[in-house]
Amino acid sequence: MTVVDRYLYPRVDPSRIGNLILWPISLLMVIHRSLILGVNGHRTDDFTPVYNAALAFLNQRPVYNENYATVDPHYLYPPSGTLLMSPLAILDPDTARWTFIGVSAVVLIGCAYLLCRLFGLDHRSWVFPAVVFFFYSTETVAHTLIFTNFNGFVLLGMVAFLILMLKRQDLWAGVFIGLTLSVKPILGVLLLLVLMNRQWKILITAVGIPLLLNAAAWPLSNDPMDFVKRTVPYLGESRDYYNSSITGMGQYFGMGDWLTLLLRIAFVAMAVFGLWFLYRYYRRSDELLWLTTSSGILLGTFFLVSSLGQGYYSMLLFPMLMTVLRPGSAVRNWPAWLGVYGCMTFDVWVSKEWEPFGRYLEYGKVTWGWSLLMIAVFCSLLFRYLDMRRADVLGIDSVSPSKPPVTA
């Protein structure tokens, strides 16, 4: 290399190229999704019912008095969630909403960092901006910010729970999942993993915190029994709008009840096999892979078979998707990522030229995405089981130490 070549071809560390490309794009996506799309809002507004409930709570007015016959977003948090959300009403509505969007955006970046740390990567790795880019390119993150929903905080609680559970800091793990359960009990299915791993102390705070917060909020609420009498029955009903669960799609497309029930049973059966196989062959040799994949199976199946599954719940599958960086991952196959596209794409498939076809794709993409992802994970694990049976090694435990993620 000549003296001139040093100036014409400046040397750049190859490990920095990913960061140089991904960070500017990722940060601009964060700004666009939060500052522009988030502040612009949408006809679907999850924040106003929460703000109005918080304001009513602070002023000792009824909270659970909505008309559930409408298709507008409803306030569905328990009294414990109302208590935690009540500080929002100290601010005026616009300031409260913008503050909530800003904090949510920071929380989601924090979740990306914590996921990288969970898989042995630090902030200097190109994977960190890549994860941020992936987060903010999805429908689940975009609509969480646009609709101004609580989901980002649920993801933070989930990731913190997984990290602390692996570190055996059981009481603190229970604190984080307990706080999310106090507002949205969607992570309740993960307590099955606590039972499977016999980390009983987690249950003390995971169950205790919602109980204590409800006990504190109950006498402060104007109508706490209406949550039990009116809201809880509504939560158990399946609706045919904004509902990507199997029952929701069944009602919307007019499927027979027998077919809806058969599909729900099939996905539960696949989940049972996947959980058993992961517990039997991965829990001791690679606890991280066991925990993150099992959490994804539990949540993905819950989204499908419960009475209500909404597309932006998909962000809770991020920990399972991160396993693609780890040997033994069940999502190292193209059908799984076709399913990820379905349940996380921000693309709109409505077509003016082929209206029925586009409508079916648009309204069903989240359901088929979750379904394909769960089927791909099931088949990946099933084929391993069949290969092991053919080799007659089913009775042999894996003793290999956990392998590190790919170098990044």
Automatic annotation (TrEMBL):
GO terms for molecular function: hexosyltransferase activity. One of its GO terms (cellular component) is plasma membrane. It comes from the Bacteria. The chain crosses the membrane at residues 20-39, 98-120, 141-165, 171-195, 202-220, 258-279, 288-313, 368-386. InterPro entries: GT87. It is a multi-pass membrane protein. The keyword Secreted does not apply. The keyword Repeat does not apply. It is found in: Cell membrane. Keywords: Cell membrane, Membrane, Transferase, Transmembrane, Transmembrane helix. Belongs to the glycosyltransferase 87 family. This is Arabinosyltransferase AftC. It comes from Gordonia malaquae NBRC 108250.
